[in-house]
Specification:
It contains 6 helices and 9 strands, in the order αββββαβαββαββαα. The chain has about 220 residues and is of the alpha+beta class. It has one domain (about 5-210): L-fuculose-1-phosphate Aldolase, CATH 3.40.225.10. A 7-stranded antiparallel sheet has the order 4-3-2-1-5-9-8, with helices on both faces. A two-stranded antiparallel ribbon has the order 6-7. α2 runs parallel beside α4 and α3 packs across α5. The longest helix has 24 residues, at about 170-195.
Length: about 220
């Protein structure tokens, strides 16, 4: 990906996270793969509106060394781990959107309940296990392990923290983040009204065929 465009897209994504109320202050982070050896990740510790696109650091994907730019997000290990483990992933978005974060605090998976589940693409949006503090390699390892529990899933919930989404582009990963928040909000409303009705696996697959994706499930599962 061309670097100048990647810097612009990453910065716009971060500003949009704030505008869409998926994060507060300097919370959340994002990254995009530049090539097989290089990752562009959001700068850390400052409000996004006080940063310029050129300040977001370039990082060596193999070593984690910062090649250029400001200090990276405290979740650098998380982004490196996901990009290393999932070579088809080219963008990662991590938000603290309130409803999804609420489910992560309750440590409850989100089921396939509506059309917005087509973005996350998994039978369930799983919560990482066990809990790991922010910024740690334990959190990075738990996140990768959770995504690999449903190969092809584009989202998970970091326990007591918030959602993480992936995609082939920042735009896709960000849209999935919005969809995760919608699913979380609708599931909360349904539960408050009475019961969350989960769409049956065979009907999930029918939705997948309609919209051109395969529902990600654990490898041993058969619909």
């Amino acid at each position: 990906m061309e670097l100048a465009a990647a810097r612009r897209d990453l910065h716009e994504t971060l500003l949009r996270m704030v505008d869409d109320r998926l994060v507060v202050g300097s919370a959340g982070n994002a990254s995009v793969r530049i090539d097989d050896r290089t990752l562009l990740v959001s700068a850390g510790g400052r409000l996004y509106r006080h940063l310029s696109p050129d300040e977001h650091p370039l990082v060596d994907l193999a070593t984690g060394e910062v090649r250029a730019g400001a200090a990276p997000t405290s979740e650098l290990a998380l982004h490196l781990a996901v990009m290393r483990a999932l070579p088809d992933v080219h963008a990662v978005v991590h938000t603290h959107s309130p409803y999804a974060a609420g489910w992560s605090v309750a440590r409850l998976d989100l089921d396939f309940v509506c059309n917005e589940n087509i973005g996350p693409a998994g039978e369930r949006i799983l919560v990482t296990q066990p809990y790991a503090p922010p910024g740690t390699t334990d959190l990075a390892d738990a996140t990768v392990a959770t995504l690999l529990r449903q190969p092809g899933s584009r989202a998970c919930l970091l326990a007591n923290h918030g959602p993480l989404t992936v995609g082939p582009t920042l735009e896709v990963a960000y849209t999935v983040a919005q969809q995760v928040e919608w699913v979380a909000q609708m599931s909360f409303v349904a539960r408050s009204l009475g019961h969350v009705h989960v769409i049956a696996p065979e009907q999930q697959d029918q939705i997948g065929r309609t919209y051109g994706f395969r529902v990600a499930r654990p490898p041993h599962h058969s619909a």
